[in-house]
Each structure stands twice: as C-alpha cells, then as structure tokens.
Amino acid sequence: MNAPDKAALLPDEQRIVMTGIGLTSPAGNDLATLRDSLLNGRSGVQEYEIRYVGKTLAGICDFPVNQYQSRKDARRGTRAGAVGIWAANQAVANAGLDWANVDKSTVGIYIGVTEHGNVETENEIYQIKQFDYDVQFWSHHHNPRTVANNPAGEIALNMGITGPHYTLGAACAAGNVGIVQGAQMLRCGDCDLAIAGGVSESIHTFGIFASFKSQGALAHHADPTKASRPFDTSRNGIVVSEGACLYVLERLSDAKRRGANIIAEIVSYAINTDATDFVLPNPERQAQCVQLALKRGGLTADAINIVSTHATGTASGDAQECQALRSVFANCPNTFINNTKSFIGHTMGAAGALELAGNLPAFQDKICHATINVDELDPECDLPGLVINQPREVNRVTYVLNNSFGMLGINSVLIVRPML
C-alpha cells in the first residue's frame, strides 16, 4: 500500500477538488458521451474544408450554441467564446451550484488557449478584400474579438462573473495550465470558486492547417476516422480539432460545506520548459516535468495507474514522448498508458483538459480506454502498459497522470485522484 500523497496531508483549505465539468468535443458534448465514444472506439474526426487549404480533416464540435447565448451575442462574439460559454455553463450546472445566489465577485475564470485572434483577423481580411481593402468595411467588433483575454471575458459577460478573468497562452499545454492556475489562485485566496481549463477554435483558421501542411505534419487518410493514429508506424501528422473543457474547482473545505459531489482531487502538477527548439520536443525535459510532478505529490512512478499521453501523431513527437515515459515508467507493471487524440484529434488549447476528462470515469469503472488506429506499433513507441485498440480492465485506478506539451518547449503534467 502506498503512503498518502502530499495533497492528502494538507489542511482542507489548501486541498483543491473538481466538483463540476463541462465540455464539448468532436466525440460528444458531455462526459458520459465522450466516455462512451472512448470505450467503444468511435472517432469524431471527419472531412472538412477551409478556404485556401481546401479539403482536409478535422475534429468539429456540434453543440447548441444558442442554449446559453443569444443569436446577437454569438454573432458579435467568437467561436472560442462560444465553446467556452457552453462548457462553463455546463460545468456550473454539473457542480450543482445554486448559481443565482453565488457571489460572482468571488469567482475566477482561468482559460488556457493555444492562440487567439487569428480566426477573426483572417475573416476580416478576407471580407475587406471583397471591398478593395476599404477600412470602412472593417468590423467594429474586431478589437474585443481579438484581445487575448476574449474567451475568458466572453464567459464573464455571459455569466455575470465579476471576479478575475484571464486567459493563459501556453500553446498545447494550455488546458493543464488553466487548471493549475485555477488551483493556485484558490490556494492564495484570489477567488473562492474557479472555472478553469482550456478552449480551442483552431479549425476556423486556415493558417494552422497551412502551417502544419507546409511542415509535412498535417494528417491525411482515406478514412477520416483513422487519420489520427499516434504510435502507429504509418502516422503522418496532426488532425486539427476544436473543443473546450472547463472544470469548477473549489477548496475541499468549501466543497464539503455545501455537500458537493467531488469528481477528483488535484494531487500535484508541474510546468517546465525545454529551451531547446521552437517546435521539436525534448524528451529529457519532458521526463523531468513528470518526475517533478511525482516528487511534489510525494509519489513514486509505480503509484500512477493511468498515464494520458500528449502524443499528437507526428513521427518525432510521439517517439520522443515515449522515450521520456520509458525513462520514468519502465518498471511499473501496474501503470497503463493511453491516448485520446486518436479519437478526437488535437484540440490544441483544450487538449490537456479534455484528455484528462476522458480518463476521469476510470476511477469508477476501472477501465483504461485504448489508443485506437494502431495497426502496426512503431517499435520506438513500444511502451510497457500501452493500451491499444481495445480498452483494458485494471485492478485499481487511484492516480491519473496527464501529459500536455506545447510549442516553444512548454511542458505540463497534472496528477489527480478520487477522494479516498
């Protein structure tokens, strides 16, 4: 039996728990639907066409935008704002909060993003081109749409939240980073309730597709559902996707006081930087980030039951992450490893938060969902405990470790567990 982790030894006022979750993904608009897709091998990737790039593949969200937004507000806002508003309202409802009587000045909003403003800028330039670049046709909504705090700000406006709100630019590590920030702000008393996670509107900018295509890193396959194939020898790149996943975070003392249903407790986290390349990951730094999260949590590697990988389906990135994981978990027979991008593609700023969400039900059902589309495992990605193509029942799930890495060498690791 492992010794208690360090989080369990903290006073309740310093222990941070997840009490609500809201999401939209290419494989479902709530956790139950997403989990069902993950356990039954259903990919959410489909054909997609975007200007200048043409036909490609993407993960697209389909949710009732106007359930929480008026048509006018949706038109003047952004897609990132829309997915964020959906997820935030769903998270609050899922948390069972008496929202009408919550003091909105005590609520903080911490949203991770990969990028923001590209979609709106591209659209405006495309439109003004039709008018010979006459600036009188430039939208007066452009500035509030493109400021970096927009997704968090749109949530604040929609929900009447008057506490702090901001976004955190952390490339594709942003979903984890948003959660970490929310936990830190609760611990330092900046807020009493945090809405935290990540959002992405990436499929609406042609630039991201064009850039990945120019790098030879944009996935393609005759069957869209098989395009995202981390760890497979024939993997050929990233499937760009949109999405959002936001959590309600509270101090354990507050959650107990109101009798909240606790989904998971944040045990530990770590963020570090490669400082070696704009794009290529550094497996040594990634391993150090994982080891730092374990050390901060007072955990040994063999305490981790599920490792949710970042692996994007690129030739070098997957192999390098596997190298990092092999150095940490090589002698851990009770550690199982999976990947969620094989189902939904790469949801960029939402990736860390969504991929964590997909593994949370394992605390109850004791199943590690698989990585799909692995027809021939790349020997460089052959890891002990790698679960491929079929879900695997496991004896216990006490700790889930979530990897999320991004360009410019940012690495993030988050460890959670159920309330014991």
Report on the architecture of this protein:
The protein is α/β, with parallel strands linked by helices and 420 residues long. The chain has two domains: 8-257, Thiolase/Chalcone synthase (Peroxisomal Thiolase, Chain A, domain 1); 268-417, Peroxisomal Thiolase, Chain A, domain 1, CATH 3.40.47. 32% of the residues lie in helices and 21% in strands. It is built from 14 helices and 15 strands. The chain has helices spanning 31-39, 71-76, 79-94, 118-129, 142-146, 150-159, 174-187, 206-214, 252-257, 283-297, 315-329, 341-344, 351-359, 362-365; strands at residues 16-24, 45-50, 54-59, 107-113, 165-169, 193-200, 240-241, 243-251, 264-273, 306-308, 336-338, 367-368, 392-393, 400-406, 410-417. The strands form three sheets. Strands 5-4-6-8-1-9-15-14-10-11 form a ten-stranded mixed β-sheet, with helices on both faces. Strands 2-3-7 form a three-stranded mixed β-sheet. Helix 3 (79-94) packs across helix 6, helix 7 (174-187) packs across helix 13 (351-359) and helix 10 packs parallel to helix 11 (315-329). The chain is globular.
Quick overview of this protein structure:
The protein contains 14 helices and 15 strands. With 420 residues, it is α/β, with parallel strands linked by helices.
